[in-house]
Design brief:
single chain, binds S-adenosylmethionine, six-stranded antiparallel β-sheet, 312 residues, five-stranded parallel β-sheet, alpha/beta
């Protein structure tokens, strides 16, 4: 559950907000009916009004919607925005929307009920020639040398007062981490990033994603895990990148760090076989990542064979 500080950070993240504002400016016309799913403090709804929307439906279960109502009033848009406190899948609207805008992602777009909510919006709310913002997200993965992230993860569980903390170590090594530390930059990538999944929101129906990826070490180094991030296309040619190669600091999403069970020394040319799986359950997404690292000259020589979480 987000609070006002979280919503303030989302609002202040210009890497994210500026392309959203530009996409709305591009899509909204004076006759537009706009649906803002997950309006929070109402920023997309306010922008849609500013760009001339005739009517905006703004849906949000969080009590932040009360502040959104006040902000609409304070900015003279209260007569054009209809606020509905609920989740979108429970709502029916009296008309179809020309533009549906949302950002229901977490660190990664595979988060909570994001995909089912978008599928539902496509089927029930979007006019046949309507515009969906965002249009698609591309998910990327790279093997990374990240000693600080890895050591920070394990530090509390490294024999405090002489106690064996192995069960705790096993838990933290089998969970992926939200990383907004900016410690992992382009120089820490050990492989070229691979686009392992594309979520096309205009057509998506399956919330589960599974992909096998083969990567090659581009230099020698010590691999500590996988870094996963996404690039967003809000409209054709309008978007943003969360890549550590973008040269920008991590924005409000951060990136996902998937640790290995132990660090693995790589030589240039070694082969890394990855299998990534995200499955939506009643409790949210369940992630699995499998890693096999082979010697470049003799594939029978396997340096690492991790199946994580190893509790499954
Ligand atoms: C990441 S925040 C984005 C807030 C705001 N739209 C922005 O871009 O700054 C996502 C918001 O969507 C809401 N939300 C998630 N799923 C929803 C759904 N199916 N219907 C309505 N709101 C939803 C959450 O409560 C949260 O406030």
């Amino acid at each position: 559950m987000y609070d006002l500080t979280d919503y303030g950070q989302m609002l202040a993240d210009h890497v994210r907000m500026d392309p959203y504002a530009y996409a709305l400016k591009t899509a909204v016309t004076p006759n537009s009916v706009v649906l803002d799913i997950g309006t929070s403090i109402g920023i997309h709804a306010l922008l849609a009004c500013k760009f001339g929307a005739r009517k905006v439906y703004a849906i949000e279960p969080n009590d932040a919607i009360d502040l959104a109502r006040e902000l609409a009033e304070a900015n003279g848009f209260a007569d054009r925005i209809e606020f509905i406190q609920d989740i979108s899948t429970n709502v029916t609207l009296p008309e179809l929307a020309d533009v549906v805008v949302s950002d229901l992602r977490g660190t990664l777009p595979l988060f909570g009920q994001h995909i089912p909510s978008i599928t539902d919006a496509n089927q029930r709310f979007l006019a046949p020639d309507g515009i969906l913002i965002p249009q698609q997200d591309k998910l990327w993965v790279s093997v990374v040398e990240a000693p600080l992230n890895y050591n920070n993860l394990l530090k509390p569980w490294t024999e405090p007062y002489g106690f064996n903390m192995e069960p705790a170590r096993q838990i933290v090594l089998n969970q992926w981490q939200h990383d907004d530390t900016d410690l992992i930059r382009a120089a820490h990538l050990l492989t070229e990033p691979t686009n392992w999944a594309t979520l096309d929101y205009r057509t998506i129906t399956n919330p589960d994603v599974e992909a096998d990826v083969v990567q090659t070490a581009v230099r020698e180094g010590t691999a500590h895990g996988l870094l996963v991030w996404f690039d967003a296309e809000l409209l054709d040619g309008i978007g943003f990148s969360n890549s550590p190669q973008s040269g920008k600091v991590a924005n409000v999403y951060g990136r996902g760090f998937f640790p290995f069970l132990n660090p693995v020394k790589l030589a240039e040319g070694d082969t890394i076989n990855l299998s990534l799986q995200a499955t939506l359950t009643d409790e949210g997404y369940c992630w699995q990542w499998q890693t096999q690292i082979h010697n470049q000259d003799d594939p029978k020589i396997i340096f690492a064979d991790f199946k994580q979480p190893n509790t499954l």
